[in-house]
Amino acid sequence: MWQSYINGLLMAAGLIIAIGAQNAFVLAQSLRREHHLPVAALCVVCDALLVSAGVFGLATLLAQNPLLLNIARWGGAAFLLWYGVQALRRAISPTALGQGAETGPRSRRAVLLAALAVTLLNPHVYLDTVLLIGSLGAHQTVPGAYALGAASASLVWFFALALGAAWLAPWLARPATWRVLDLTVALMMFGMAAQLMLGQ
Q: What are the transmembrane regions (predicted)?
């Protein structure tokens, strides 16, 4: 059980930490202190629902079809390797996370709708949570623990951004910080790809 939980935690952490539109939005809202906690909660709920749909829906489908399981296994491994290479490329030429905050306060509804758009209109969200994390969950001994681990990573990361944005801002503005993070992400992705290819 704990191995499945840790696998889900590390896999989701590697995907969530990478610089992306969702992280940039949460960080910008947090720096402005504009409905940042509801935004973080919304991102966590969306991730948990998408991961659960991927883990349990794909796990059942793949378990009934060995061909699809092999396609998901090798496709997932290929995607992980590609993702790791992208992280290495970012580490070689790192950039700071742009904040680009808008001026003027917005209502909670407007901010949450914008957060939903950033989260659900991004095709990478579905690749990462539903397809990639879901297909990996099909190989776990305890899929529920794996999904819980993935949701835990989302919870910790988004609330860390929401609550610690002002303190983290100077640190996150340094390209060297993202170089270390991207190198860590690359190692995680390569490790998980190897685990898939070896059938573990």
A: 6-27, 39-59, 71-89, 110-133, 145-168, 180-198
